[in-house]
Amino acid sequence: MRGLITKVLLGAVLISLGSGCGVNFYAGRPSDIEKIRQLSAELDRLRMQKEAEAQQLREAQQLLQKRLQKEISEKQVKLEMAERGLVITFVSEVLFDSGKAVLRPEAKESLEKVAGVIREKVSDRDIGVEGHTDNEPIKVSGWKSNWELSTSRATSVLHALEAHGVNPRLLVATGYGEYRPVASNDAAEGRQKNRRVEIVILPKKLTPAEEELLRRAKRSSEPGLAEKARELEEFK
Q: Which long-range contacts (CB under 8 A, 24 or more apart) does 51-55 make?
């Protein structure tokens, strides 16, 4: 009788240390203990994978800082690690003449540097190219609105990245016009900040299988499993 009680208690301890499943498990059942161990290991592997992907983005940022040192020091380019990914912001005047969407010759060298880092460090990542303007209405440049101008500028940058070897399947261009400002348009300095093109190297999303793994863990009655799942949700 004492041996049976010991086995039951041991099973309960093992379950409390486990992590990873979407159903209740029962103390002392070997099959349940093994499921917990396996799912816990899956969560640990996913954590390591996502941390490696985050490190990859950090390395890309460091390399961009090195190669774009001149542009950054002259405040032509800004780098930022944001929730949506690694954001490379170009002041529009560096890339384009006023009211134009054709890249200036000197801008192509900077974009080639960006493309080189993408190829070397993050060649499997989705890349968003976003065009932005200030709120000054279009007058003489021939564009219907700032939307068309911002979209065309984003597309010009996209084609430059493609020309320098970035996989076109991973590229998307978007024009936001004046509707996502980062500064007030009341002053010239703020309007200049709003006229920009952002190249966003996106983090990898969780696959459907990985999301299902997290759902199973969160539904589990085991606190350790649910906690691991919540921590991994930051990578969504």
A: 53/203, 53/204, 53/235, 54/203, 54/235
CA–CA gap between residue 204 and residue 53 (Å, rounded): 8
Distance CA 205, CA 21 (A): 21
pTM for this model (two decimals) = 0.82
How large is the greatest C-alpha to C-alpha distance in the chain, in angstroms? 92
The CA distances from residue 42 to 23, 37, 178, 212, in Å, are 16, 9, 45, 12
Q: Per CATH, the architecture of 52-201 is what?
A: 2-Layer Sandwich (3.30)
- Give the DSSP letter of residue 102: S
The pairing of beta strand 196-201 with beta strand 85-91:
antiparallel
| Amino acid identity, position 160 | A
Q: Which two tokens stand for residue 92?
A: 């529009």
Whether the Cβ atoms of residue 79 and residue 72 lie closer than 8 Å to each other: yes
| Strands in 124-215 per DSSP E | 127-132, 171-175, 196-201
Cβ atoms of 208 and 34 closer than 8 Å = no
Locate the domains of the chain by residue range.
52-201
Confidence of residue 59 (pLDDT cuts 50, 70, 90): very high
pLDDT band per the 50, 70, 90 thresholds, residue 123? very high
Tokens of 142: 């021939």
- Angstrom CA distances, 79 to 21, 155, 195, stand at 39, 20, 16
pLDDT digits (tens, 9 = 90+) for 182-207: 999 999 999 999 999 999 999 998 88
